[in-house]
Amino acid sequence: MKKFKLCFDKNKEMDWLNEMSRQGWNLTKFGYGLYTFEPCTPGEYVYDCDLKNKGFSISPDYRSILESQNIQIIPSGGFWFLVRRKASDGPLQLYTDDQSRLEQYKKIRRMFKVTAIAELMILMFLTWDIAVMIPDREPLIWTVMFLCTLLVGAAALTLMNAVFQTSREIAKIQGKSEESYPCGQWVVAAGMLCMGISLLLKDYAPESVCEMIAGFALGLELVGALTLAFRKFS
Asked: Does pTM top 0.90 for this prediction?
């Protein structure tokens, strides 16, 4: 059985996988949101996760440590990997003390930030191409670019939300009160809205006006992106 699910909260992801195990489904493969399961004895396995410590791979030393504790690495793609162990061997938690959990969450947040910044940079290039560079005589290209922009924008906002959620987990571990979402999220959203307005006005307003609104939108997106990327809990 295969399931597609995008998880950006590791605690919720582990709760889901452990619930699938209790229902008699064991995870055998994972990559980019696609989970592959096979039937198992209900509750046979327990799960945990971590970031790969060598880019897209796991170092031999880390593998040895995991294997020495009867922990099996589940084949996966990307920076993330999942592990499982027989429930009869006891609970599975790779990081048990506050300091190690804090370091893990900081690595996860850093990964989300880098990915979010990359998505925002792509978003800015796409929106600029749509608003300024693509000629009116190419409606097909414009439509494809517009759809790509929507997808990249949705991905960027999702990743930014993941940064916020991870920061909140870090604050909990540090014993700090949870803060409200920084205004950077809304600055980026305002930039995307302004870019949409510039596109709608393309056939009705002077080109210079549309370009001015598009430039303003790009500026908002950049400021919001920097705010989201570098602001931390005090």
From this structure: no
